[in-house]
Design a protein that fits this description.
By secondary structure, chain A is an all-beta fold. Chain A has strands at 4-7, 10-14, 19-25, 31-37, 44-49, 55-58, 61-65, 71-76, 85-94, 101-105, 109-114. Chain A is built from no helices and eleven strands. Chain B has no helices and eleven strands. Classes of the chains: A mainly beta (115), B mainly beta (115).
């Protein structure tokens, strides 16, 4: 079945540093989504990407939809303490049967920001 | 809009007890999903629904049942709870595929402990 490899699994950075994380897949997706999950909360959608090569920003966050449609990255610039949380990528595409669309999730990147 | 809401937020059950988790969305979304989130396992799809009156199995459906009697509600039932069902449960919804906009939104979660 479809699998997403998200890396790194965790990051520990200093406030003000930039952060980059990425997801790769063996399957093609037609949408990439990036979520953030705070402790004790549900995932919140940060950025949605719909076209190969698309680069989209949301404040200090920038994400890109890879040209091959099999990867995506998320950058956070000038990190602040409230950026702490788990970041998930998710790819939307046809399932292994080829008849239904499904969302496949990465395992997440745990980000810790040291003030 | 309240978005996706879940009740209850927390619950403790004894082995063998039953309960129903309620998910409601006010975005008129066609698709609704139930996931469970466990440490190191990421988000795993339990059941989903592509419309009122329809349900389908996800990756880990055993021990759960669902119903979608109304478009805005998606119920997850545990008929005989087991300690292996201790987890955080998330409901999610999205609109029917249209113009490539496949944004999926999550509820705040239900934390279930089975003793």
């Amino acid at each position: 079945g479809q699998q997403l490899n998200q890396s790194p699994q965790s990051m520990f950075i200093q406030e003000g540093e930039d952060v980059s994380m990425n997801c790769t897949s063996s399957s093609i997706f037609n949408t990439w989504l990036w979520y953030k999950q705070d402790p004790g909360e549900g995932p919140v959608l940060l950025i949605a990407l719909y076209k190969a090569g698309e680069l989209t920003s949301n404040g200090r966050l920038t994400a890109q939809f890879g040209i091959t449609r099999k990867d995506s990255f998320l950058n956070i610039s000038a990190s602040i303490p409230s950026d702490v949380g788990i970041y998930f990528c998710a790819g939307f595409g046809l399932d292994s049967g080829g008849s239904n669309y499904k969302l496949t999730f990465g395992k997440g990147t745990l980000l810790t920001v040291n003030p | 809009n309240a978005g996706v809401t879940q009740t209850p937020k927390f619950r403790v059950l004894k082995t063998g007890q039953s309960m129903t988790l309620l998910c409601a969305q006010d975005m008129n979304h066609e698709y609704m999903y139930w996931y469970r989130q466990d440490p190191g396992m990421g988000l795993r799809l339990i059941h989903y629904s592509v419309g009122e009156g329809t349900t389908a199995k996800g990756e880990v459906p055993d021990g759960y049942n669902v119903s979608r009697l109304k478009k805005q509600n998606f119920l997850l039932g545990l008929e005989s709870a087991a300690p292996s069902q201790t987890s955080v449960y998330f409901c999610a919804s999205r609109m029917r595929l249209a113009g490539g906009h496949n944004e999926q939104f999550f509820g705040p979660g239900t934390r279930l402990t089975v003793l």
